[in-house]
Amino acid sequence: MDIVPEITRKSITRLINDGKRADGRAFDERRDIFIEPNVIEKAEGSARVKLGDTQVIVGVKPTIGEPFGDTPNLGVLMTNCELLPMAAPGFEPGPPSPESIELARVVDRGIRESELVDLEKLCIEEGKKVWMLFIDLHVIDYDGNLFDASNLAVMAALMNTKLPVAEYIDDEVVLSEDETMDLPIRDKLALSTFVKIGNGLILDPSLEEEEILDARITIGVTDEGNHVCSMQKGGEAPLSRDEILDAVHMAFTTKDDLLSYLD
Amino acid sequence: MFFIISNDKELRADGRAYNELRPIKIEAGVLKRADGSAYLEVGGNKILASVYGPRESYIRRLLKPNTGVIRVRYNMAPFSVDDRKRPGPDRRSTEISKIAADALRPALMLESFPRSMVDVSIEVIEAEGGTRCAGITAAAVALADAGIPMKDIVVGCAAGKVNDQIVLDLSEKEDKEGQADVPIAIMPRTGEITLLQADGNLTEEEFEEALDLAMEGCMKISELQHEALKNRYSSE
Questions:
Q1: Do A85 and B121 touch (CB under 8 A)?
Q2: Are A121 and A131 a contacting pair, CB within 8 Å?
Q3: What is the pLDDT of residues B27-45, one digit of tens each?
Q4: Which residue of A has its CA nearest to B80?
Q5: ipTM higher than 0.90?
Q6: How far apart are CA A102 and CA A77, in angstroms?
């Protein structure tokens, strides 16, 4: 058990019950966001994102493979996440932890369910060859709220991903040497994570808030579609119906501000 | 009419002289959570190093009652190379992790921290030849940034043979097409060598030349390490 969160728990909870946060933010206010696209020249798409002091790097690498039998005309997306030991004292090398798998799956679900990547355009020859995109998430500094930071980084990386133009000739895929195409992106996803501490529901938890959370909820909202397309609850405490609806409402009201960083 | 016959050695594919390093940038203290950290770019390499510790060794078999131990993990990001690398350790990264620990250990005064462990993590974000030396160089800066007592700041650099010529700091292309590669790491104050590997074909004379050239490169990089640390602590 970590000692420090047990010591800070009371003071942070008392502050939140008084309508305040330890770092002075409003309940629906995020930390500073910084996005640097195209950080990896060898990746077809990449980005580094800082959300407060949380930092992630995402790289997108494509390969050509066979489509799944039930979706012969669709490209494939695969999201992987590594919580690097450099990111926090408690992160250990080895097989992926449940936390890292949850993170990868929540980010993946948002991208997939929002259908923001037009997977039909990633088909090279129906039933034979499609583009498979590996989205690799590298968490390098963990200071709370990896979900939102990761989603922002994945969005930024996908938006600057370029694939070589591929043609299917005589049972073979021929890649153009100089012609590239932008990844077909038709929407944007805003992922917002809230945690419940005491009586308050706060957006973008910092590390010290995340360490003492009662409950957590992550909500994915599309920009164009204006829909909720993914959700994940975490934490040991339950959430009431009203709390969930509050969170969903805040996810919509803070969406434009969040996505403006991707322009 | 005169013809000037130059005695200078030929320029390399990327226009460098035989004893010229790729452009280098080193920054100390780039991560918030880590006790020490560094970011290093050399040519197309982008490398992050972090240090946690000395902290209590929770791995029983690594614990030593009379001294601290250092553990290094060298890891390449899946997107760091042209064909995506499968995540996780492989034989190459396991070997590099081990030799990197051996290269860094001699400079550290871990005797003052019995039963403890220092965790060094070297993450190759983008690779372009010479990542092990660059990783060791970055890790040494991160160790200094973490305030771990040390006798010297270890620094790594490679020399090799390309087109029958001994050259400093091989790029990815030169490493692939070249005839030999000699990565080393030294403690610059004494010139003691803490890492030495070699592959390829070298005569005895060529090896000596490569070793001297690599040490020369190490001394140049060493200055940049010191500068990075000075910058880190003068701005605070």
A1: yes
A2: no
A3: 999 999 999 999 999 999 9
A4: A42
A5: no
A6: 16
Provide CB contacts within 8 A for A18, sequence distance 6+: none
Residue B148, SS3 per DSSP = coil
CA distance A136 to A78: 8
- Residue B103, φ and ψ in degrees, nearest 5: -70, -35
Residues for chain A: how many in total? 263
Instruction: Kindly give the parts of chain B with pLDDT less than 50.
Output: 1, 3-7
Q: Identify the helix (H) or strand (E) that includes residue A36.
A: strand A33-37
Model pLDDT for residues A149-192, shown as the tens digit of each residue: 999 999 999 999 999 999 999 888 899 888 999 999 999 999 99
Tell me the nearest-neighbour CA distance from A86 into chain B, angstroms: 5
SS3 B181: strand
Beta-carbon contacts of A165 under 8 Å, excluding residues fewer than 6 positions away, are A175, A176, A179, A180, A181
The amino acid sitting at B133 is C
- Which DSSP category does B22 fall into? P
In contact, B182 and B216? CB cutoff 8 Å: no
- Rounded Cα gap, residues B173 and A170, in angstroms: 33
For A18, the token pair is: 């008084």
- Most B CBs within 10 Å, among A41, A81, A86, A175, to test the B interface: A86
Query: What is the pLDDT of chain A when averaged over all its residues?
Result: 93
Q: What DSSP designation does A185 have? A: B
**What is the rounded average pLDDT of the residues A51-72?**
95
